[in-house]
Amino acid sequence: MDLITTTSDLAAACSRLAQHKVITVDTEFLRETTYYPLLCVVQMASADEAVVIDTLAPGIDLKAFFELMGNEAVLKVFHAARQDIEIVWHLSNTIPHPIFDTQVAAMVLGYGDSIAYDQLVERVTGHRPDKTHRFTDWSRRPLTPEQMHYAVSDVTHLRDVFAALDADLKKRGRSDWVSEEMEILTSPRTYDFHPERAWERLKTRVRKPKELAVLMEVAAWREQEAQSRDVPRSRVLKDDAVGDIATHAPTSLERLASLRSLPKGFDRSKWGSDIIAAVQRGVARDPHTLPKIEKPRGNSNGAATVELLKVLLRMTSERHAVASKVIATVDDLDQIAADDHADVPALHGWRRELFGEAAIALKHGRLALAIEKGRVVRVDRT
Fold first, then answer.
1. Does residue 69 lie in a domain region?
2. For position 214, which CATH number holds?
3. Are residues 211 and 132 in the same domain?
4. Could you give the CA distance from residue 251 to residue 343 in angstroms, rounded to a whole number?
5. Is it the case that residue 29 has pLDDT exceeding 80?
6. Please, which pLDDT band fits residue 373 given cuts at 50, 70 and 90?
7. Top-ranked range on mean pLDDT: pick from 100-114, 133-147, 293-307
């Protein structure tokens, strides 16, 4: 197989692929040392052919590829699509659509939480993919024949996986479940990395408005710095350091230097002064303009309720052959334990029908759990 290295060859290949209703897509990229991923290779396949594109070839214009990604007449099949979509969005401001993510479909069909591509291929087709080049440096040129074979096999096996999963979804009446998840994956908000929203991705717990304000300002500063320098966020400031700064709110370099989460001498760098400025902006913010801080659950039996909900979730997952992760998260369970009307995915749509209604019934004693022949079963008490 010839590697596509010119704009004209790429345009011709995309034109051929656009004649098909379904194509499979995968990308190879690097991002260990950068904020934005470096796209190195794109591989795509239809029922008739597979192509490999050298996205780093001198002078190549990827416009035809981006147009194909936005072609509404062609379903694009990925496995674990989020990073692939992020790359296309960053380079072209285009969200691939429509799409099908085989990892999500596999969760809906009971293959487990976030199953790896090679494991899914083996379970569906019986073939064991060669993952030798999984962690190779895809930016090095020339690409070897082994790398080319690896790239092609990724999308050719994906054709068979898609066909099997799609048929199973239709048989079980679960295609709409996957479609709901695809709406989230194809929402621009999913890939919106505006600095002012950077704090939302942090797991830091804050208790006071001042802590939240400082967290928001420092997280925004770190995001801007990482983006402008094109380096990973952790190269600027680690998550635990951001949380530490939010908690202590140091307004002087001396106080900043006392934080154990920062490397020695950090306070003497330019970043030290930048952080102090961010902290000061946070301290000066009007508390009334801040998002509401979620208070700890007041229910003394909340932990026990969550444990019961976990048992119900696992029972539901096994009974319906759906990965528990796609039904409800631990955070969902925490919120359901505290509020029957919590705005969480587990209380909407097919998840509510499958699990949410039973979870609320369990809370209020209308449903009980029992063990029968070594298995957990539900017992309706109404």
1. yes
2. 1.10.150.80
3. no
4. 37
5. yes
6. confident
7. 100-114
